[in-house]
TrEMBL record:
Entry superkingdom: Bacteria
Keyword ATP-binding: yes
Organism, scientific name: Marinomonas vulgaris
Keyword NAD attached: no
CDD domains found in the cross-reference section: ABC_Carb_Solutes_like (cd03259)
GO molecular function: ATP binding
Protein name: ABC transporter ATP-binding protein
């Protein structure tokens, strides 16, 4: 088991890289702590597989270091890194039995046969493969084959980490949740560092304690599913996480934040910070879940036009035009379905401000004891 550190790591497939876009992995420093269950989440082509292959040693990075428990492993071959990797498509030897498939990594390193037997039985039991051990792998279903692939990673005692590269792609939807639960159980039982690559936010948040969101070769946020939802550190996280994603609109800084004729409420501390930054582009984001839709007229709220309401069973998505821009609000099942002109507001706590796509944060105002007493009264 190991902590995996990526130190000033970068990778390009180009022979002559000249600009950031030439890099599949842009320089990053990142730590996967020992024993954690992590997900690496991002759209197709953002660099997930490249990063995983660098960790496992299948690919040599152009720059930077990979460290396991603080020890540089760049020069170690994949088989010397004690990393198990489970790919999209199961890697099994069809002509061998399930037992022999599971025993393979142990036989390779000369483990005595009696030890192999007990280890294979233990892992087969966890993966619910005990009654399949004598079968040839060829006849197994895709999910059983994928379990054998995972099992091959788990039989070795000294495995530092298990890397999963979209392991459920070929699994039937109704079996996916079962395998996912199994992975979670294995993580709890073995306390192994696990990194799970996916482009599916549901898969990421059901598996991982912490998710690294990757975009254009960079990890733009590393946080719990809740942090990614409540406090997206980058506009891409706001857009990619959530269904539908965050509403964004570009504002101007003129004493206050303005979107057309509308003033967007924000703190004085935020305005001071923004004035100091002199940003070229300021974007405001609010999640549909946090847009407040008023039942009736409210002079403190924005007057907007309803475009349409989509009924999704247990909730509804209201689309409305705000200063000519389409935005969305999530309505609960029992909420009245509005039409025509309605009033919405954006609670300040959930209204996030981004400069150059990154979240701008200001410290919460310090409340002194006397103020607290005053508020309490
Ligand atoms: N062998 C290669 N040679 C050249 N470019 C490559 C190679 N492998 C990947 N790339 C490029 O590097 C970038 C990152 O690809 P990578 O496969 O790591 O992304 P990914 O997030 O895993 O995508 P996917 O989910 O589609 O597998 C992409 O632009 C891709 O085209």
């Amino acid at each position: 088991m190991a902590a995996i550190t990526l130190n000033a790591l970068a990778h390009t497939y180009s022979d002559n890289p000249t600009k950031p876009e030439d890099y599949a992995i842009r320089e990053m420093t990142h730590v996967w702590e020992q024993g954690g269950a992590f997900a690496l989440l991002g759209p197709s082509g953002c660099g997930k597989s490249t990063l995983l292959n660098i960790i496992s040693g299948l690919l040599e990075p152009s720059n930077g270091e990979v460290l396991f428990d603080g020890k540089r492993v760049n020069e170690l071959k994949p088989e010397e890194r004690n990393i198990a990797q489970v790919f999209q498509f199961p890697v099994v030897y069809d002509t061998m039995t399930v037992f022999d498939n599971l025993a393979f990594p142990l036989r390779n390193i000369g483990v005595p046969e009696h030890k192999i037997k007990s280890k294979v039985f233990e892992v087969a039991d966890i993966l619910e493969l005990s009654d399949q051990l004598k079968r040839k792998a060829k006849g197994l279903s895709a999910d059983q084959k994928q379990k054998v692939s995972m099992g091959r990673g788990l039989v070795r005692d000294n495995v530092s980490a298990i890397l999963f590269d979209e392991p459920l792609t070929v699994i039937d939807p109704q079996l996916k949740w079962k395998l996912r639960r199994k992975l979670k159980q294995i993580h709890e039982q073995f306390n192994i560092t696990m990194v799970y690559v996916t482009h599916d936010q549901l898969e990421a948040s059901t598996f991982a304690d912490k998710i690294a969101v990757m975009y254009n070769g960079q990890i733009v946020q590393f946080g719990t599913p809740r942090e990614l939802f409540e406090k997206p550190a980058h506009t891409f996280v706001g857009y990619f996480i959530g269904s539908p994603g965050m509403n964004f609109f570009e504002v101007e800084l003129k004493d206050t934040l303005r979107f057309g004729d509308h003033e967007i409420t924000t703190s004085d501390a935020m305005l001071t910070r923004l004035n100091a930054m002199q940003p070229k582009k300021i974007t405001v984001g609010i999640r549909p879940e946090f847009v407040h839709v008023w039942d009736g007229k409210n002079d403190d709220a924005f007057k907007v036009d309803v475009d349409y309401v989509e009924d999704l069973g247990t909730y509804k998505i209201l689309s409305f035009l705000f200063n000519g821009q389409m935005m969305k609000a999530r309505l609960s099942e029992d909420q009245k379905v509005p039409s025509g002109q309605i009033y919405v507001s954006f609670p300040e706590q959930w209204t996030k401000v981004y400069v150059d796509e990154y979240l701008v944060e200001v410290a919460d105002p310090v409340i002194t004891q006397s103020e607290e007493t005053h508020h309490a009264n």
